[in-house]
Amino acid sequence: MASQTRSNAGAKSEYLTYAPTGERCSNCDGPIGSLEQVHRDIVARIGAPPTVVYRHRENECPK
């Protein structure tokens, strides 16, 4: 697996949205519900193109 680093560390996420079915939170690795609003971020990967990740909203991540 490619090493990952946040491309926007310290910045706010792109926007709130709904994640595709089956996505997991990039912070806690917990499942994301189908109608749950989440933050959408882009993560830079070493040796691979950037990828989109989703994470629970503030204070909603069970981590």
Tally of strands = 4
Q: So how many helices?
A: 0
**Low-confidence segments:** 1-11
**Which class do the helix and strand fractions yield?**
mainly beta
Largest β sheet strand count, sense and barrel closure: 4 strands, antiparallel
Assign an overall shape.
globular
Order of helices and strands: EEEE
Rg over CA atoms, rounded to whole Å, is 12 Å
Distance between the termini: 23 Å
Helical residue percent band? under 10%
Can you give the mean pLDDT? 81
Percentage beta strand: 35-45%
Protein name: Transposase
Topology:
Blueprint: E1 4-6, E2 15-18, E3 37-45, E4 48-56
Antiparallel strand pairs: 1-3, 2-3, 3-4
Tags for this entry?
63 residues, mainly beta, 4-stranded antiparallel beta sheet, 4 strands, disordered N terminus, Transposase
What can you tell me about this protein's structure?
The chain is mostly beta strands and 63 residues long. It has strands at residues 4-6, 15-18, 37-45, 48-56. Strands 1, 2, 3 and 4 form a 4-stranded antiparallel beta sheet that branches. A hairpin with a 2-residue loop joins strand 3 (37-45) and strand 4 (48-56).
